[in-house]
């Protein structure tokens, strides 16, 4: 354990000591790449479900992603300060609130048969049905911890990921839609009426969009690469929801090469104002770290610092609008260094520490300009 010399014999909480503490904390972060192990201002609940029995040799979505995260969090000694939630399976009700019986039966059957491929990129192993239920159920348990006041905010480090899974489809490495299951759970078990889902994974959250596109109780916002064609090829500016959900889906289809500046301007000038307008009671984040410039599956150019700023802004909005109620749920991220450091920075931000660790630096590519897209999006969603 680190101790803070400035706190010895000091009156905790005085402005002077807080300033000195902040200074000392920054020094620790900058000079040594680590911070003191003083408790942050926030109590963060963590679910960790590595999905060990759901992994396929050679596939980019594998258990090593979660091991890399765990090892880095351990190395930086941040795990002790988190509230560790006991992993739990989804209830039948939680699964049925999002997926059809046929879809649930298909995943159960495929696992029982010994596994196989559901489409070109999505696999099932014998343990996949249980691991997928454990992932979604544990994310719900973190949401419970936030709702009951046991934690201020939450982080679900789980796999398989979920945002490509629709009510009756498994695709894009996803079997059940974790974030959607948590959203419905919040509505059904806790009476939450307005939920915002922000999806900053580099791929469009097509499953999440499909589940909520007719639903005005869930604002769904997705930033993703679309031009030139990029999986899953959906999420255009004009896709804004249907029926009573019209206007409650916001798609930000970015071009290859968009990075810190572009993401920041989209957040500042579109996403944050829309969140304020919607005034959610809970914010869920589909947190994919595959928009990092080093990711092998994508072509965005966010840096770790850029990612950390986005996470901090979302935390700030949660503090202003919904009593800090925010839960980040892991989606993609296939460059393990970027993934693990992205989660480390997110964990610091959740706990209230002002520290960003970015050993990878910024992208060397010149960033694509998205001014025209931003104008189109503002006209569409903000009526400017
Ligand atoms: Zn992704």
Summary tags:
384 residues; alpha/beta; Arginase, Chain A; eight-stranded parallel sheet; 11 helices; 40% helix; binds zinc ion
Short description:
By secondary structure, the protein is α/β, with parallel strands linked by helices. It has helices at 15-32, 64-75, 92-96, 101-112, 128-147, 178-190, 206-212, 260-278, 304-321, 336-351, 371-382; strands spanning 44-49, 83-84, 116-117, 123-124, 153-158, 195-199, 218-227, 249-255, 282-287, 326-330. Bound molecules: zinc ion (ZN).
Poorly predicted runs are 1-38
H/E series: HEHEHHEEHEHEHEEHEHEHH
Number of domains: 1
Radius of gyration: 20 Å
Mean pLDDT over the full residue set: 90
Strand content: 5-15%
What's the story with the biggest beta sheet?
8 strands, parallel
Bound compounds, each kind once, are: zinc ion
Determine the CATH superfamily. Histone deacetylase domain
CATH topology: Arginase, Chain A
Task: Give the helix level as a range of percent.
Answer: 25-40%
How would you sum up this structure, described in words?
- A hairpin with a 5-residue loop joins strand 3 and strand 4.
- The protein has helices spanning 15-32, 64-75, 92-96, 101-112, 128-147, 178-190, 206-212, 260-278, 304-321, 336-351, 371-382; strands at 44-49, 83-84, 116-117, 123-124, 153-158, 195-199, 218-227, 249-255, 282-287, 326-330.
- The radius of gyration is 20 Å and the shape is globular.
- It has a single domain, classed as 3-Layer(aba) Sandwich (Arginase, Chain A), CATH 3.40.800.20.
- Helix 5 (128-147) packs across helix 6 (178-190), helix 8 runs parallel beside helix 9 (304-321) and helix 8 runs parallel beside helix 11 (371-382).
- The protein is 40% helix and 13% strand.
- Zinc ion binds next to loops.
């Amino acid at each position: 354990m680190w101790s803070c010399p400035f706190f010895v014999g000091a009156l905790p909480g005085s402005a002077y000591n807080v300033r000195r503490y902040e200074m000392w904390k920054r020094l620790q972060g900058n000079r040594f790449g680590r911070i003191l192990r003083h408790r942050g201002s926030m109590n963060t609940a963590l679910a960790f479900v590595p999905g060990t029995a759901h992994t396929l040799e050679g596939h980019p979505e594998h258990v090593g992603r979660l091991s890399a995260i765990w090892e880095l969090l351990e190395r930086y000694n941040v795990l002790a300060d988190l509230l560790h939630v006991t992993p739990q399976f989804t209830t039948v009700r939680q699964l049925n609130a999002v997926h059809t019986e046929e879809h649930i039966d298909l995943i159960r059957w495929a696992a029982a048969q010994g596994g196989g491929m559901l489409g070109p990129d999505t696999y099932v192993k014998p343990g996949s049905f249980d691991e997928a239920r454990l992932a979604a159920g544990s994310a719900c348990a973190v949401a419970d911890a936030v709702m009951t006041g046991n934690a201020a905010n939450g982080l679900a480090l789980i796999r398989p990921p979920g945002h490509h899974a629709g009510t009756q489809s498994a695709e894009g490495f996803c079997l059940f839609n974790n974030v959607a299951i948590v959203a419905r759970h919040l509505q059904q078990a806790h009476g939450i009426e307005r939920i915002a889902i922000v999806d900053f994974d580099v791929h469009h959250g097509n499953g999440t969009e499909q589940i909520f596109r007719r639903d005005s109780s869930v604002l769904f916002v997705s930033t993703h690469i679309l031009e030139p064609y990029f999986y899953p090829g959906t999420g255009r500016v004009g896709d804004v929801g249907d029926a009573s959900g019209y206007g409650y889906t916001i798609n930000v289809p970015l071009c290859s090469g968009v990075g810190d500046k572009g993401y920041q301007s989209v957040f500042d000038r579109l996403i944050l104002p829309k969140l304020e307008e919607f005034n959610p009671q809970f914010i869920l984040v589909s947190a994919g770290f595959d928009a990092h410039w080093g990711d092998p599956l994508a072509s965005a150019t966010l840096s770790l610092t850029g990612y950390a700023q986005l996470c901090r802004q979302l935390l700030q909005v949660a503090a202003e609008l919904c009593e800090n109620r925010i839960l980040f749920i892991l989606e993609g991220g296939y460059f393990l260094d970027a993934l693990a450091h992205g989660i480390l920075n997110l964990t610091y931000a959740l706990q209230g520490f002002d520290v960003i660790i970015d050993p990878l630096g910024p992208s060397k590519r010149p960033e694509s300009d998205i001014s025209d897209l931003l104008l189109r999006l503002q006209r569409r969603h903000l009526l400017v």
